[in-house]
Amino acid sequence: MEKKKFTKIGNVEIGNGIFLAPMEDVCDLPFRVICKRLGADIVYSEFIASEGIIRDSRTSKRKMKVAEEERPVAIQIFGGSIDAMVESAKIVEDAGADILDINFGCWVKKVVQRDAGAAFLKKPDEMAELTRRVQEAVQIPVTVKTRLGWDPESIVITEVAKKIEQAGAKALAIHCRTRDMGMTGLADWSWIPKVKDITNIPIILNGDVVEPEDVKRAFDTSGCDALMIGRGCIGYPFIFHRAKVMMEEGYDPGEPDIYTRVDVCLDHLRMSLDFKDRNAIIEFRKHYSGYLKGFFGASEVRRALMSSETYEEIEDNLRQYVKYLEDNDRLEPVSKTRKAPTLSCNSEKYVRRQTREVV
To answer: How many separate domains does the chain show?
Structure first.
């Protein structure tokens, strides 16, 4: 494996270079803590609108909350106004973030139509100016996350990389898809070495890292300094442990057993309840599939969990399920083949709806 060129982002250690990618409605504080415990080197928050931060909205304040256990943590912000981004960056720094990340890659219509996120791929000079102003306003490292370009005919990532480095960004994360792809198609990792050849900041790969083997392959083939794991860790934070062991000791420790899965799942749920109160019961349901996937009868217990309304009921369902597997000698997973969760944003129909009439 090619040795990583950089070991720090500003003054923040990269470690093995295995990061939790920022994901809306996924990367809340409890999930970040779980991923950190299992081996993620740097964890990223959900993205937060600069206007919400300035208004001191309840949602923005919750998203900015940081626990000492999860450090180093990056807080990601987005917006189309330079002044609002600068003001919100100062608030994020005061909230205790170790890194401030600027989202120039969100592709959904409601963000792009506000001249934020991936809209900046059409105006690299403004992207660089915003980056410069934000970096000058804070003491913590400022990083950027973006895509290859607006579409296959306008790939601008090499131009963007040079501009944001000159503007003072301390690292660049590249989601190796164009804006018009959304979350569909294959990520093109071949752009990572091209960008590394012309820059002198850490380059972070994002896209299609869903298995521990993908981690090694990404480092080996692209020479990236770090990478982000997104959909592959939803309900399956164990990928960070497996990837860390593979990187440090050279082997994959394999799938966690059902006891570990249930214990971590319940720990995650308890933290979520403490963090979000009863709202966590419903919001947590997206994680059950990943925690239980591959085990006999998992679909039946998932149905029960989806209608459970208290922590006690959920724990009882899970403990009874483990007992059922023990009694029937079914503790080994039926299938060890995993895929990243299928989300609404993965569908071609959703992508067409989000990208139509956005110019």
So the answer is: 2
Segment 258-291, tens digit of pLDDT: 999 999 999 999 999 999 877 889 999 999 999 9
Q: What average pLDDT does this structure show over 123-143?
A: 98
**Is there a single domain that holds both residue 37 and residue 185?**
yes
Same domain, 179 and 287: no
* Residue at 350 is within a domain: no
pTM here is 0.91
Lowest-pLDDT range of 156-160, 223-227, 273-277, 340-344: 340-344
Catalogue the long-range contacts made by 276-283 (C-beta closer than 8 Å, 24 or more residues apart). Answer: 276/28, 276/62, 281/308, 281/309, 281/310, 281/311, 281/314, 283/25
| Rounded average pLDDT over 166-189 | 95
pLDDT digits (tens, 9 = 90+) for 5-16: 789 999 999 999
Q: Give the residue numbers spanning the domain of 97.
A: 8-254
Q: What tokens were used for 299?
A: 């679909």
Last residue of a domain, one of 254, 287, 314: 254
List C-alpha distances in Å: 239 to 35, 261, 275, 324, 353: 9, 12, 24, 26, 32
Pair of tokens at residue 233: 């860790």
From 27, 35, 106, 176, active-site residue: 106
Query: Is 106 one of the annotated active-site residues of the chain?
Result: yes
